[in-house]
Design goal:
six-stranded mixed beta sheet; single chain; 22% strand; 36% helix
Length: 455
């Protein structure tokens, strides 16, 4: 099996690392076997990148084996260094696009448990794909079920037999874009991307109040977060981004070529204006945002094939020109990311299985972009607490401004959850509630990340 990388796969250049802390003993042989099974199921993890006539191609290599590195860790600082090494380490083209680190507790070390670092490249995995890998890895630590391989989807599968009358206009637009790219001078100066990573959270009580309030107001949690983030961005003044962008999970039947357990690099996204009218009630704005979300999700899913088709008409700019394009964004936008910030939502993180001897104690995400400037927030619920990970290139925002967003954002969510809580009916107060779920027709579509903020 051999195929040329698509334009999108060549442009996406980022790493995604999931860190999972586990309660219980990890067996070395079972871990190696679980990794091998994950690799056998997903053909993209058996691919190397080869140069064919000057163009990168995926080539199936049965001899490839996902590397497993075991490290005895002794402190939180040691663990963070390992996480940074994995997140910032590029994948060699002749190696599998996945690697695993087993952080084993050293004897007498002041650490809680064993942890796994699972890292892949964004050109292979979006956030949901990474979830699939981690979930299967944990399952095969105790299950003997054999994997069922599949034929990996490609951009051509997503585009399909697209005959909507736009091809002529797309070719003209692509020629114009290619002509503009040709005029951009190449930069020889290396591009240095360095992300600031922060974590914020609501406590369990506030998280529960917020879920209940969203259900009572008929608003998906993601819509409430979009409104709160838009309001919080006002702390940046004139440097506030104009748009909040949210990636969409294109699985669950939305794109027929993309099954729920397949690896793929991403789907579409929608964006909402960040600026709001603060005179309007918070929940009135959230309901309007929810309606806009539904409309834009439906429209964007329908437009994905055409967008992918257009991208394949573009000539990938050389690395030097891409560096110039990023620096152009630094110069003309207020925050180095073309005046956008992303908000991705993993939803309720549930990785435990009833029969599993290991339990997930903690879970978090690391992202590094080698190309564009990252600027975004990843939200998820774990063990009843709503958590947020801010990942922003230091060129976009400094620590003080990022922390100001975090304080305003979490404060607004806590405040809006408490408004009117004393007046809520007893039945509503007793209801545990839930995050927006794809099977709940009362909620808007679940949003899942491409994990990397877009530019």
């Amino acid at each position: 099996m051999k195929r040329k990388l698509s334009t999108l796969e060549r442009l996406i250049d980022a790493n995604i690392c999931y860190r999972v802390a586990l309660e219980g003993e990890i067996d070395a042989d079972r871990l190696r076997s679980a990794i091998d099974r994950v690799q056998r199921k997903h053909p993209m993890l058996r691919m190397a990148i080869r140069d064919v006539d000057g163009e990168p191609h995926y080539a199936l290599d049965p001899a490839l084996r996902v590397p497993l590195r075991a490290v005895e860790w002794v402190s939180a600082e040691h663990r963070e260094r390992e996480c940074e090494t994995e997140t910032y380490g590029a994948f060699p083209p002749d190696q599998p696009q996945l690697r695993v680190v087993w952080l084993r507790r050293a004897e007498a070390a002041d650490v809680a448990c064993d942890e796994l670092l699972v890292t892949s490249t964004h050109r292979v995995c979006d956030g949901m794909s990474m979830f699939t890998i981690v979930r299967e890895l944990l399952r095969w630590l105790h299950s003997d079920q054999e994997p069922v391989p599949y034929t990996p989807p490609t951009v051509a599968d997503i585009v399909g037999d697209l005959r909507d009358g736009r091809s002529g206009k797309q070719r003209m637009a692509a020629r114009l874009v290619n002509a503009v790219f040709a005029l951009i001078p190449a930069s020889r100066r290396p591009l240095v991307n360095r992300e600031l990573r922060l974590e914020w959270a609501l406590d369990a009580a506030a998280s529960e109040r917020l879920k209940r309030r969203c259900r009572r107001e008929g608003v998906p949690l993601h819509a409430a977060m979009l409104v709160a983030l838009g309001e919080a961005l006002a702390v940046l003044g004139k440097r506030a981004p104009d748009w909040i962008e949210s990636p969409i999970d294109a699985r669950r039947g939305r794109l027929p070529a993309l099954k729920d357990d397949m690896l793929f690099f991403g789907g579409g996204s929608f964006k909402l204006a960040s600026k709001q009218d603060p005179r309007r009630d918070f929940w009135e704005r959230a309901r309007a945002a929810a309606a806009e979300m539904r409309e834009k999700i439906e429209r964007d899913i329908a437009e994905i094939p055409g967008k992918y088709q257009f991208c394949e008409m573009l000539r990938v700019p050389p690395a030097g020109k891409l560096r110039s394009i990023v620096r152009l964004g630094d110069a003309v936008s207020r925050n180095g990311n073309w005046n956008r910030i992303s908000l991705s939502n993993l939803g309720n993180v549930t990785l435990d299985e009833e029969a599993a001897p290991l339990r997930v104690r903690d879970f978090t995400v690391y992202v590094h972009s080698f190309a564009i400037r990252s600027l975004g927030i990843l939200a998820y619920m774990l063990h009843g607490r709503l958590r947020f990970i801010y990942i922003g290139d230091e060129t976009c925002l400094d620590r003080a401004r990022a922390e100001a967003i975090g304080r305003a954002f979490t404060g607004l969510l806590g405040d809006c959850a408490g408004r009117g809580e004393a007046d809520a009916p007893a039945a509503a107060r007793a209801d545990a509630g839930a995050l927006a779920h794809p099977d709940d027709p009362r909620q808007a579509e679940r949003i899942l990340p491409g994990a990397l903020p877009r530019s």
